[in-house]
Specification:
7% of the residues lie in helices and 56% in strands. By secondary structure, it is mainly beta. The chain has one domain: TonB-dependent receptor, beta-barrel domain (Maltoporin, Chain A). The strands form five sheets. The chain has a 22-stranded antiparallel barrel. The protein starts with 6 loop residues before the first helix and ends with a strand.
Amino acid sequence: MKQQFSSKALAALLCGSAISLSTATIAQGNPTVSVSNSPNPTNPIIVTATRNPTESKDVLSDFTYIGREEIEQAAQTSLPELLQQQRGIQVSNTGGAGNVSSVYIRGTNNNQSLVLVDGVRVESSALGGPIWNSIPLSSIDHIEIVYGPQSTFYGADAMGGVIQIFTKKGGGPTTLEASAGYGTYGTSITNASASGTIEGANKTAFALGVSQENSLGYNSVASNNGCSPQNPNRTCTFPTTNTGYTRLGANGQISQEWAQGQELGIKFLSSRVNWQYPSDAYFDSAYSGASAPVTNNQVNNLLVASIYSKNQINQFWQSLVQVANSTSSGQNLTGFSNDKIDTPDNSYTWQNNFSIGPDILQLLAERRDQYVNASNSPTGTGGGCGYGGINCAVNQSRTTDSVAASYQLKRGNNLANASIRNDSITNYGSKVTGSVAYGYFFTKQWRANINYGTGFRAPTFNELYYPGSGNPTLAPETNRNLEAGIHHENNVYDLHLVAYQNKIENLIQWQPTSSDPYGLWAPANYGLVQIQGISLGANARLGKFIVKASADSLTAIDQKTNLDLPNRARQVGNLGVEYNHNKIQVGSNITLSGQRYGSPASTSNTQWMAPYALVNLYSSYEFDPQWTVFARWNNMFNSNYQLAYGSNTPGSNVFAGIRYAMK
């Protein structure tokens, strides 16, 4: 069943948000009204926007906060699917929770936004952007999404924004938690964790969690896929059998406060995911074998680890020293190849925050060492190496040395931030980025702000050195973003309306190389993109109801071709309603998306994907102080939609389980 979504549906969603907010205004006098069950949900502490804990009301960057309760309600929902339910986020996916996904923040590419896990970059230096299916949802405590360029705080790749994932941390009395569930497509998810504090001469906090996921999957080859057996114009044949996945995860933290204001700690996240994907032996053999449908496997390992020392030097000076490693490793298993790749990424950070009255001066020094070690094969590269003297192996590295400074000012009703950063990158010299932001409180509840920032993205190792098609002369992408917003926040509801314009130059695009006999593509600094949009978000707690709504309208246009960028809808919206009564919780969220195009923007806007609406339902019941049963029904009306052209998405699916929490 195909769901339709248009500007009328978006208008209806906006009206619904307005009605919710009007009702919230009436409810302000009700002493039972609150916004969320988190410790201080109306004003959470946001770290990512300035690299410094800041009350949300004083954060000038546009942001979204996803709390632990919302993550627990996700059940079988993947991390990209959870992000899709947030303001300003769109996703693409080629085959469910275990397969390849891309996340687009405000219309920017997957590799134009930065993902952090506990302050450490998580990305493939070869592909750019994170391997999303390597991050287990059960390891996550909360998520912060900061919109707009953040290169002045984080360096390369933070052109569209930053998503920071915080894993579960210790503290308080010892707690044991576990959950297990089973659902459609033979999906099973189990996880367990322990956390707490060991009191003694020095307070030691700890947390440790493990998780396992298995799914038989479903047929991901849609009828409009160029290799579908149902496509009369196909030039290849993919299998239409189910493609499943397994994912193992572990996370942990331990820290010790060895003196007041002095903390030493270690954090890690580790995962291994093995997923299947459809292919054709003709492709796997580099176009030399006979066409035959085959199912291949991809294995990815992720390790993120850091050691840090946080020290209050004196009442004005706080220092943070961190040494971290993030390594993404992959292995592609086909009948013709067994290609492997490792992309270690080491970082060294020294951050200093100086309190100057109500203001904060931040000085930062960083070093980043990136490596790629790939053992490719002629077949694995589609004939891109192994002939004409082209080497199949790729062993490259680069170093980035960075210094940055920022100043956060607070004077009466005025807020202001200014920052500047210089990144010196091997083979590119220095890249300087800057940002300024100003906000003014008309009242304690109403605030307006205007922000301007620049950013850049360094080419990936694949774009530079991929056998047979890499282009070592590529220049970094750059962008300039201007936005303005108005915000209202009180103890009952919050409202955010932001308009933005993001111009991206030197966009790297892969183009066909007609001179190559194998028809390979090569990257070039070809594109010039302009993204303009308006984003509206609203959250409210009305007695026993929680309402969360958002609506986004954007255009992401390649200025050289005047075509829409692929996989971006011009209108998207989300609406969530949750009801809590004693020990019962029932909720639903709706995602609406307009039409999107699946072909590269440099080619044509002909492969379009239909608008869709998704309706999900979840519930839980605490039948004992320590035991809760829960269930989730995704895609209730079995909407037939695509997040990547030619790839099926899950149909109507249910998941149910039980959760234990020692109290």
